[in-house]
Design a protein that fits this description.
about 130 residues; Immunoglobulin-like; 3-stranded mixed beta sheet; 1 helix
Length: about 130
């Protein structure tokens, strides 16, 4: 291999790495930073989560386990709209489920998808005593 071809391959590597990282963040069927499980935790309340899901209202009792499921094959987040944040941001893998989330504190907790925006993906989780 000539020095010129080797230098080109080295120069192209950061570009290709950046391109793959950017496309992965846009969704698709890849992982969104979670295990990407498609089987919910035993007894979990599963909330369907997809682009266009607005005003999703779910009510559970304190102590319940909740998971969000990507039903459009795209990666999403579940991000608290409360200030301060009511819970840590959850990743939802494309076509998979978020990590199980146990809710112990009663209240009303608005959330949205930080990838696609609150205008096109938002909901409220109400936890009763």
């Amino acid at each position: 291999m000539t020095l010129h071809k080797h230098a080109f391959r080295l120069a192209a590597f950061p570009f290709l790495f950046s391109l793959v990282a950017a496309l992965s963040a846009c969704g698709g069927s890849g992982s969104g930073g979670t295990t990407g499980s498609t089987v919910p935790a035993t007894g979990a309340t599963v909330i369907n989560w997809f682009v266009g899901a607005t005003n999703v209202a779910t009510t559970v009792k304190a102590g319940a386990t909740v998971q969000w499921k990507s039903t459009d094959g795209m990666a999403h987040t579940v991000t608290s709209s409360s200030s301060p944040s009511a819970f840590a941001e959850l990743d939802v893998a494309g076509g998979g489920l978020s990590s199980p989330f146990v809710v112990n504190t009663p209240g009303t907790f608005p959330y949205f998808c930080a990838i696609h925006g609150a205008r096109v993906m938002n909901g409220t989780l109400t936890v009763t005593p």
